[in-house]
Design a protein that fits this description.
The protein is α+β, with helices and mostly antiparallel strands and 108 residues long. The protein is 27% helix and 17% strand. It has one domain (8-93): 2-Layer Sandwich (GMP Synthetase, Chain A, domain 3). It is built from 3 helices and 3 strands; from the N terminus they run αββαβα. The model has no long low-confidence stretch (mean pLDDT 91). Residues 13-86 form the MIP18 family-like domain.
């Protein structure tokens, strides 16, 4: 397998790894485990689109967090371009958090 043919699933896993390095400023859990990432699309051209939400519409990092996600994804060599779209539909609730996040926050 040459370096130019990479599996989009493999790339998806790399993207998730990078996303897991980004933490919500108010909650000591990464944004992936918090359930803020709704979807990650990887096209055959290695363009990435992330559909994510914020814990609240007036989240203090509403401007910087999507930019950080975009920049970190773009830093992966295979990624050609990345775009982050913010949605509040459905709105984020604590139900979207992983078991790991709930455990971390003492909710289990």
């Amino acid at each position: 397998m040459s370096e130019t043919t990479i599996d989009t699933q493999e790339l998806g896993e790399k993207i998730v790894k990078v996303i897991k390095t980004i933490y919500d400023p108010e909650i000591p859990v990464d944004i992936y485990e918090l359930g803020l990432i709704y979807d990650v699309f990887v096209s055959e051209d290695y363009d990435v689109k992330v559909l994510m939400t914020l814990t609240t519409p007036n989240c203090p990092v509403a401007e910087s967090l999507p930019m950080e996600v975009e920049e970190k994804i773009k830093s992966i060599n295979e990624v050609k371009d990345a775009e982050v779209e913010i949605t509040f539909d459905p709105p984020w609730t604590q139900e979207l958090m992983s078991e790991e996040a709930k455990l971390e926050l003492g909710m289990l």
